[in-house]
């Protein structure tokens, strides 16, 4: 399949807006640098949004749902039917991300890419069904070329809808029983790491369950070449929702829309996106440090400094949504604080 669009250039960052924002920060009534990361967030957003006074009020959240054939290996504490049941829960407003989206006034879209337990047509859910689930990647590649392209495009379509709606921040979330297994396998493939180092508890596995999960990933990795081809690894061991996230992150960067990356699974997708299109990294903010084993390693590889560390590991985009108030406060402080001249305060 033709994936050439993934390598198209990303939107240019406006260094002049960054510099004007930096100069503005220097005039605010505070010691230089005293607001730490809140200052640098505003300056980065200024360059991405091409204006010295940025905003983070318009937020779009896309939750991509898909089932995984590797669930047949017993790698999750929850049954596979939960994926479709949670799609219904998202639509009815009962999930954590649903509550957070309402609280933030964010647009929430759910994209069903294929679930074994299909909930059917639901309000607020876009059906982009690829198959009921990916193949069990211990037996064959998770996706063929057409399925991989469909998943990548589904993510790009969500980013395009967000951009058309005027979103300033794009959040991608995920739902799919066994998707921490898929994300860990993807990370192992891209980094050449051992599954023992990157496979974690996921939905709540005990030590024996984690050991079994690592063994399943080890068995799968032995089937495939030892290379670092991100697109190939997405097809080999990825999930529909992980590929959709990858496509969404790259498309958002190409359209000039900042991305707030959530936890372990979304960071694995972000790593794939950066390997495919390195310029997309500049458009990514990282919301939090997940408790899921392996996330710290991915953050380190991406040179990412997350905004929060709350012990979260739910997924759904919930950690990213929780970090939105920090981005908003950074913009408010940047845009509304008085300068020394306005306040009549003596400078240092």
Topology record:
Elements lengths: L14 H12 L10 H13 L9 E7 L16 H11 L3 H9 L2 E6 L12 E3 L17 H20 L4 E7 L3 H13 L3 H4 L8 H15 L8 H8 L2 H16 L2 E4 L2 H13 L7 E3 L8 H7 L16 H19 L3 H4 L5
Parallel strand pairs: 1-2, 1-4, 2-3, 4-5, 5-6
Helix pairs in contact: 1-2, 2-13, 4-13, 5-10, 6-8, 6-9, 6-11, 10-11, 11-12
Can you describe what's shown?
With 348 residues, the protein is of the alpha/beta class. It has two domains: 4-53 and 334-343, 5,6-Dimethylbenzimidazole Phosphoribosyltransferase, Chain: A, domain 1, CATH 1.10.1610; 59-321, Rossmann fold, CATH 3.40.50.10210. The protein is built from 14 helices and six strands. Helix 11 links the parallel strand 5 (258-261) and strand 6 (284-286). Helix 4 packs parallel to helix 13 and helix 10 (240-255) packs across helix 11. It is an enzyme of class 2 (transferase).
Which terms would index this structure?
348 residues, alpha/beta, 5,6-Dimethylbenzimidazole Phosphoribosyltransferase, Chain: A, domain 1, six-stranded parallel β-sheet
């Amino acid at each position: 399949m033709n994936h050439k669009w993934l390598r198209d250039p990303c939107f240019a960052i406006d260094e002049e807006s960054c510099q004007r924002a930096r100069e503005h920060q220097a005039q605010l009534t505070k010691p230089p640098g005293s607001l730490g990361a809140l200052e640098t967030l505003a300056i980065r957003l200024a360059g991405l949004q091409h204006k010295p006074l940025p905003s983070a009020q318009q937020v779009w959240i896309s939750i991509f749902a898909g089932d995984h054939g590797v669930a047949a290996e017993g790698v999750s504490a929850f049954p596979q039917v939960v994926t479709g049941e949670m799609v219904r829960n998202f639509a009815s407003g009962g999930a954590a991300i649903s509550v957070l989206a309402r609280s933030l006034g964010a647009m929430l879209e759910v994209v069903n890419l294929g679930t074994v337990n299909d909930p059917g047509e639901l309000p607020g859910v876009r059906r982009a069904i690829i198959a009921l689930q990916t193949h069990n990647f211990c037996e064959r590649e998770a996706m063929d070329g057409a399925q991989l392209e469909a998943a990548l495009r589904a993510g790009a379509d969500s980013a395009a809808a967000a951009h058309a709606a005027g979103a300033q921040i794009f959040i991608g979330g995920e739902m799919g029983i066994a998707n921490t297994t898929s994300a860990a396998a993807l990370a192992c493939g891209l980094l050449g790491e051992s599954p023992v180092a990157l496979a974690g508890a996921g939905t709540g596995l005990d030590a024996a369950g984690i050991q079994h999960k690592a063994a399943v990933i080890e068995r799968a990795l032995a089937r495939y070449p030892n290379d670092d081809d991100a697109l190939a690894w997405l097809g080999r061991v990825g999930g529909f929702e992980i590929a959709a996230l990858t496509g969404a992150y790259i498309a958002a960067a190409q359209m000039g829309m900042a991305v707030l990356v959530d936890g372990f699974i979304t960071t694995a997708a972000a790593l794939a996106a950066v390997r495919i299109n390195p310029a997309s990294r500049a458009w990514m903010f990282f919301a939090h440090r997940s408790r899921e084993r392996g996330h710290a390693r991915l953050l380190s590889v991406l040179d990412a400094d997350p905004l929060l560390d709350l012990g979260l590991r739910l997924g759904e985009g919930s950690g990213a949504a929780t970090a939105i108030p920090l981005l908003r406060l950074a913009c408010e402080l940047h845009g509304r604080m008085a300068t020394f001249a306005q306040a009549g305060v003596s400078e240092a």
